[in-house]
Design goal:
The complex is a heterodimer of chains A (215) and B (162). Chain A is an alpha/beta fold and 215 residues long. Chain A has eight helices and eight strands, in the order αβαβαβααβββαβαβα. In chain A, helix 1 packs parallel to helix 7. The chains are: A alpha/beta (215), B alpha/beta (162). At the A-B interface, helix 3, helix 5 and helix 8 of A face strand 2, helix 3 and helix 5 of B.
Chain lengths: 215, 162
Amino acid sequence: MSDATERMSQMDALRALHAVRHAGDVIITSMGAARDWMVLGAGPLDLPLVPSSMGTAPAIGLGIALAQPHRRVIVVNGDGAMLMNLGSLVTITAAAPANLVLILADNGVYEVTGAQPTPGSPAARADGASVDFIGMARAAGFRSLHHWSNAGEWERHIAHVLDGPGPTFVLLDVARVPGAVGPRSPGPAPARASELRRRLTPQGDGSEASYPRTP
Amino acid sequence: MFSGDEMAALFTEMGITHVVSIADSTIGPWHPAIERTDGLRLVRVCREGEAWAVAGGLYLGGATPLVMIQCTGLFESGDALRNILHDWQLPIFSVIGYRSYLNQTTLPGDTCLVFTEPVLDAWRIDYRLITAPAQRDEILAHYIACRDASRPGAALIAEGKA
């Protein structure tokens, strides 16, 4: 969690993404982001990762991005989940898929379990300092790095950020949601997986691939 | 037991597109052959739990991945494989190195020999224990059976040193 004093709401952050995403994008969301994304309306190629193994959303996104190199894959992860699998930053840059965007929504807490601070939050650290997610991503090899706290700034830049060559890392400072609950699965996971694979494979009826962008 | 070229040829025959792996002293030497084989891509991960998730994503995207890790990594990666293989029921096949099986002098009392097969059973992974090169085709047959039944499976490869 950065020490930014201004924070956007996660819903506003996701609303901006929802407005500019392409029909052919795959959007993978985890935990609180999955809950809010489903409120906004998940598309047929989206994967609200419920149920999940916490921390694996970036890895699943990497797999889809490698299998579908002409389709943009956007993962929205939380800071608690990111801390659980920091090595995925290195795994992603090792494979270097140009079509993968990893968005980290940082609120500093394990929101759905009662807002306990993560070890990366100043509130839980002996020195009271923030961990530097942008610095970590840079050190892991990301070259496309972005950081916003203000929803308006995020909205102004999001299309440009998503259209650039990846892998891309975006840090968004988001506000905590008091009393937030975890996401509910929108349906049986095996059937959702089968349907997503069918839509993504050449024989499927998924929307046209979205990356690279064409004029 | 097997050379890298033999394993790469086997994976090609299986129709594998991506091998998601972390090296050990048996598996690692296979990596170069996999990398130079047309049609196969080696995806290196940092921990084994990632391997199941990357493979799951590859499968969802239409690829035919395989996870290749040591049994110690199997122990590490339980929750990720539970989610991918059982929650989402993605039929990921794996090749798992069985540390110390063929040489129990390097690490006397290695508990890999105690826990590996019970853990595979606990995770309901249908596996075949491979202890000799002559069983090469048994791996292929087991893979085909698992693929056709759309269920996960594994080849447990006995390793000769820790």
